[in-house]
Amino acid sequence: MEPELPPWDEALQALSKLPVEEWLSAGQVKRLYYTVSEIVKRYLTRRFEFPAVDQTSTEIVRELKSRKVAVSERFATFFLDADLVKYAKYLPAEPASVVNRARELVELTRPAPEPASPAVEAIK
Question: Which domain of life is it from (predicted)?
């Protein structure tokens, strides 16, 4: 069995596999936004260890703010836009941008790489 990917790698991989052009050419904007927001929710669930997949956008943002996640306002905007598409039939000017926005949020909240220990450096 393969080891589980870190949450950021899993999310970025899932985002890269989305058939964005296919869905958009078929007019499936809502499907795209729903899927991307679910990927982001799963990422948040794993990355910050709270049940984002079972929460509303408002609850997620409240949780992120309580944890002092630096880009919680950007998540708020992301989920608001996604909710408008999913529930209010809003059609954004550039629907494909949702994938890049999600990717950016993941990148902004992934932990900094661990500095190499002196022992590892000595081996090199």
Answer: Bacteria
pLDDT tens string 89-124: 899 999 999 999 999 999 999 988 877 665 555 555
| DSSP assignment string, the chain | -PPPPPHHHHHHHHHHT--HHHHHHTT-HHHHHHHHHHHHHHHHHHHH-S-GGGS-HHHHHHHHHHTT-TTHHHHHHHHHHHHHHHHH----SSTTHHHHHHHHHHHHHSPPPPPPPHHHHHH-
Dig out the tokens for 19 from the structure.
């058939």
Residues 74 and 68 sit within 8 Å (Cβ to Cβ): no
Q: How is the chain split into domains, by residue range?
A: 7-110
The single residue listed with the structure tokens 């954004």 is 92
What's the whole-model pTM score? 0.89
